Sequence to fold (688 residues):
Amino acid sequence: MSAGAVPDSFAPGQRPSYRLLAAPLVVAGAYYLGAEAAFAIGTLTQQFAPFWPPNVVLLCAFLMTPRRSWPLLILACLPAHVLAEHGVAMPTAQVFAAFGCNVAVAALNAHALVRLLPGRDWFSGLRGAAIYLHWTVVINPALVACVAALEPVLGNGSLGDYGQFWWRWYLSNALSNLTLTPLFLAWVPYVLLRGFHLPRRRLAEIILLVLGLAISCALAFAFRSSTAAGLFPALIYLPMPFLLAIAVRFGSKGAAAGIFVFTVALLIRAMGSDEAANAAAASYRVLSMQLFLAEAAIPVILLGALVEELQRSNIDLASALGDRNRAEIAARATEALLQSSLNALNSRFAILDEAGQILATNSSWAEQAERIAPCGERYFMGRNYLGECGRGRPHQQQIAVGLRRVIAGELAEFRLEYPSDFAPGHWYQVRGTRFFIEGELRVVVIHEDITEVKRSEDALRRLSGRLMRAQDESRRQIARDLHDSTAQNLLGAALGIGQALRLVPGLKPAAKAALEESRELIDQSQREIRTVSYLLHPPMLDEAGLPAALRWLCDGFAKRTEIQVALDLAEDIARLPGDIEAALFRVAQEALTNVHRHSGSRTAHIDLSRTRGPDGASFVIMAIEDRGRGMPAGFAPLVGSRDGNRLGIGLPGMRERLRELGGSLRIVSGGQGTIVRATVPCEMPVSA
Fold:
């Protein structure tokens, strides 16, 4: 809270009831004592005092109490005013007129300050002090003085002296608000809020400055001889350095205290003058003293308020700087923690701006940059990573292209696996993603060592290959056993039943029907075993090749499922290596199974052809297409990725079979159907 603020106990509506009852009595007593003090200073009957303390009492009481209490305070002060004025034999009409003017100027001043300075920061800043002086010293006293100057006319004053009456009333009230009111408003709330507790060094400084001011005032105002009178213009400014020093060191409170001490000293000098018996000289001396006090008090009050504002600004600035320092310390600690965490990573990490400049790296990145710097590549902090990659090796050029697409927003994430050029057998993966910080684009680039992952994938692929070869061999063996053993046994059983029927013609009809039914079941089992045997491993795949096996597969599939399958075979397709024929046959077999189970299509189409790539390499391509509902969204891209196992066994099995042969599997699926495309390199010459 500033020096001009008031503690919460003085806020409207929060004051205890006993204080509300005691306040009018205290204010009335202070009003009476103020009036008596003004008379005691030297005010003569029918003359104006140099300043009028009762109005100060009313103004301070209005400012320290809620507005609803003002009428009670006015009623309490009326008897005190009548009693004080009765002692100077003032006429009754003039008494009430004077009281009305006193109340008017105090109420106008209080209303202006409460309205314009609701926080009660009267002297805590230059603006508050300027508003205070503007209204309480200039405008309101001048306005009320226009009416108050008529008050002496109700006594024995002359209307021709209206101008003199106006100046006297105005200066006495303006001077009161320059010398007495600031002392109360600056110190009383401060003492009530904090108590009068100051460090010893600060208290000693106050005592020395006040003592110096008092001594300088005594020296300035004590000379009355004609010899010393010539020095008076110079001596009169002797207290000013102390006034300024108190204002600078202690702000508005020091300024108010200094002005009060200066005023008391000047009054003592005026009351002790030899010219006190001369009414005209006394009137002139009072007017000059009032003007001199006003000239001295106004700049000192403004200086004290300015110092108060600067002190508060310094406190706020120190607090802001402290907060900033703490924030910077916390930010540095967070940055150090983040950097330490990044340095603990084995992966190489860097942050780029939207132009590709390297803004930050971890220690792994910096160490790698140092190792490859002799090769002419500069990936240090501050360098342009995209520019360096654009001039680098092929995979680095791909990285530059991919990261530019990430920066442009075309890709949410960029990934690329590449073999190391400096550590044979090692593989790395680069990932690039973007983010925004305070509206600025940033790109995170991470190079991860995936050598162990690649080795595990290779080992898994080899194991999968062996498992699939073992599976094919097991299927071939089971198919052979079913054909050579189980099917032959069933054939023998069927022949035996037929022979029994011929040898025993006189069997009962029931027995003969049972044997006939058994022979039909044996024949049906033979057909099913033959079908299962062919599905496990069609003999014609080894004997006649892939085209014949596909024709047999399509015919059998159409008969079993009532799904029409169209088969297109290129003329240049003849015998292929056995592992390629087996892989493509299994892909066709698995694809047709998926058409039957999942697509809902009533037709399918298989196309087998050969083609050559841009480099002249020969490829065999088989495409299986349906017109069904398609795969669920997001499933097709999983084929060929590390997350492909989520699709089950069939599609990953196709992929692994083809990958073993250096081929690939691609799936395009939508609302109009699905296309499964298998591609296998094959350098076999085309057969006629």
Notes: The first strand starts at residue 348 and ends at 353. Confidence is low (pLDDT under 50) at residues 1-16, 43-47. The CA atoms of residues 117 and 555 lie 100 Å apart.
